[in-house]
Amino acid sequence: MFFHPMDFLIIIAFILAMWAQSRVKGSFQQGAKIQASSQITGVEVARKILDSEGLSNVKIELSRRGALSDHYDPSAKTVRLSEPVYRGSSLASLAVAAHEVGHAIQHANHYSMLVLRHRMFPVANLGSKIAPFLLIAGLLLDQSGVNLIGFGILLFAAAVLFQVVTLPVEYNASSRAKTKLLELGMITNQEERGVGKVLNAAALTYLASTLIAVLQLVKFIMIFNNRR
């Protein structure tokens, strides 16, 4: 079976994504073993940072979806933290809690990339669900499937662009997290490196998944051009 060079690039990107995912777990487990000198818990970190930003209206809840299910829900203005982060006082717990609060701060400050991401979500969500079916249908048909492939590519491109916009949003939230942790004295300068490892590993997963999506989009465009 003949493989196009683009296929090899996509395979390499998938391997990178798997490695990045394992690195996230490894970095979190490593960071979870190091207790912060402040002995503050993740939920306390979240509350202190939110209050320092005048966001007392943002709630903090315990997530019931297991480890690494931490997220900020803009519709409910709620930061949800997993059990290890919520109750933990490790560098990993502090890093993740502060990162999610970073998204809450972005929301409150109308951070431009986050606003753009929210506006793109409906189209990107539709594209990620429908585009694969259109692309498969277009590939199964003869010349008549070209238009389906073209429309599928447009929808898939919207989903890819959403992932691209997500990158600066995540990196900015991590930057805010480290700044606030240091500013409020919840970590020392020596502990910043440990926090950074956890945040950088998480950011790498977004970068890897975006790379896969971009390469897939390029491949679909090449197929479309050949079918034309």
UniProtKB/TrEMBL annotation:
Top-level taxon of the source organism: Bacteria
Positions of transmembrane segments: 120-141, 148-169, 203-224
Sorted UniProt keywords: Membrane, Transmembrane, Transmembrane helix
Keyword Transferase among record annotations: no
Keyword Cell wall biogenesis/degradation assigned: no
Designated name of the protein: Zinc metallopeptidase
